[in-house]
Design brief:
174 residues; 8 strands; 3-stranded antiparallel β-sheet; single chain; alpha+beta
Length: 174
């Protein structure tokens, strides 16, 4: 098991097949999907397939979302990290995207901010990325707050599938 980043309270490690029950708890919750434009998963097999997909991204792209584990309990509480977005979004292709998603009982504890900061540091210091991007539904106040708090700069609002989203960017510090 590879650990990519560690914070005061969190381990950010590769997603493993054994994370399927936690991923299912996360992605079967309709409230988690409120601003994502996705439908919640309905079977553990869907979670297993998603983990396999992300693990293939590690191989193909050298990056992918990581499991977020609470150090104190050893519990899977969500995922965070960078992924390569190959298809077009807001007229851009082939960009590293910062993202995070947490089980509802982990909300409001600052974990998204902590994991996002660690992900950005890894992206700039280890991957040597020139810039990192993020998008968030305009209505998702929590996610927009986190992105600004960790230093991403709002660039513009754009339409994603008929839903207004904010586009953010952060260039590698000099």
């Amino acid at each position: 098991m590879q650990i990519f980043a560690e914070t005061e309270r969190l381990l950010l490690r590769e997603l493993l097949p054994t994370d399927a029950p936690g991923m299912f708890e996360l992605d079967s919750d309709p409230e988690v999907h409120r601003y994502l434009g996705n439908q919640p998963v309905t079977t553990i097999e869907q979670s297993e397939a998603l983990i396999a997909f992300v693990r293939q991204q590690y191989i193909d792209n050298g990056m992918g979302r990581w499991a977020v584990v609470e150090k104190q309990t050893g519990e899977f509480i969500g995922w965070a990290g960078l992924k390569l977005v190959e298809g077009p979004t807001n007229g851009r292709t082939g960009y590293p995207d910062l993202g995070y998603r947490f089980i509802r009982r982990a909300w409001g504890r600052g974990y998204a901010t902590e994991a996002a900061r660690a992900s950005l540091q890894y992206g700039f210091d280890v991957l040597r990325l020139p810039a990192i991007y993020a998008i968030a539904d305009v209505q998702n106040q929590g996610s927009n707050h986190v992105l600004r708090k960790v230093g991403l700069r709002f660039i513009e609002e754009f339409d994603l599938g008929g839903v207004p989203h904010n586009w953010y960017e952060l260039n590698r510090p000099v």
